[in-house]
Amino acid sequence: MLTDKDNLLRQLHGLRSEHRDLDSVIARLGDEKLTDQLQIQRLKKRKLLLRDQILRLESRLIPDDIA
């Protein structure tokens, strides 16, 4: 049975993977001569949203008790 922490780690892994994939797609589109700037902006916005989700998940995994 998966724990809450395991589920968070699985989600985190998926989000990081999608974030890396978007890096590749954005770089590839940026190298093309004729690119759809609106599409690139949307991909970058999605990447920022993913980063925010990643940071939220990471903060949930870090214990709050500082001794």
Protein model, in words:
The chain has 67 residues and is mainly α. The chain has two helices and no strands. It has helices at residues 4-31, 37-61. α1 (4-31) packs antiparallel against α2 (37-61). It is elongated and about 50 Å long. It starts with a helix and ends in a 6-residue tail after the last helix. The model has no long low-confidence stretch (mean pLDDT 90).
Give a brief outline of the structure:
With about 70 residues, the protein is an all-alpha fold.
Q: Multimeric state of these chains?
A: single chain
Average of the residue pLDDT scores: 90
Estimated radius of gyration: 16 Å
Give a quick account of the main beta sheet: strands, pairing sense, barrel closure.
none
Helix content: over 70%
Percent of residues in β-strands: under 5%
Return the string of H and E elements. Answer: HH
Task: Tell me how many strands there are.
Answer: 0
Task: Report the structural category.
Answer: mainly alpha
Overall 3D form: elongated
Poorly predicted ranges (pLDDT <50, ≥5 residues)?
A: none
Total helical segments? 2
Could you tell me how far the N terminus lies from the C terminus, measured between alpha carbons in angstroms?
A: 31 Å
